[in-house]
Here is the input.
Amino acid sequence: MKPNVFSMSSPKKLPKFVDKSVIELMLDKAKKDTSKHAKRNYLILLVLWRTGIRCSEVINIRKQDIQYDIIIIRGGKGGKDRSVPIDRELSDILSIYCDSMKPGQVVFPLSRKQVYNIVCKYNVEGYDIHPHTIRHSFAVHCLKNGMNIRVLQRILGHSSLSTTQIYLDLVGEDIKDEYRKVVW
Here is the structure.
């Protein structure tokens, strides 16, 4: 019996991501900005890139959620709390930025739309990058650099490993592209 080609589900659409070099161009652009909120904007981009957290999670970070080497995400997707590791440089920058804030104060008192607009402001020509694009880029970058997929699952706050596994398909496509470069 032949399979019915019309009943087969189409392949799942892969998330869009960009290479680290594109994110670095965005960060450089933000770093050179001289506008009133340039430091805040740069820090938002940096937090998105180095943590992979969602836009909604960025705007809910409070001063006490930033600890030495983690950010505590409270009430993330599905209402779940989790801790996300941060590197020493990001920890230091956040500490300085939050120094004059009161305990309990929201670090980035913005709407999701405002964060979206900040990301779009520093877009690199030829790309259409949004906050979730940075999240996808973080995931792919982590896998390319050898991070265990279970660890990535916990950082991203996915309840199911199958949700995180979609990034393996992106890395797999990258591997095929690299393989095609080999002259036999």
Observations:
- Residues 140 and 146 are 10 Å apart (CA to CA).
- Helices lie at 20-32, 38-51, 55-58, 88-98, 112-121, 131-144, 149-156, 161-180.
- Residues 20-180 form a domain with the hpI Integrase; Chain A fold (CATH 1.10.443.10).
- Confidence is low (pLDDT under 50) at residues 3-9.
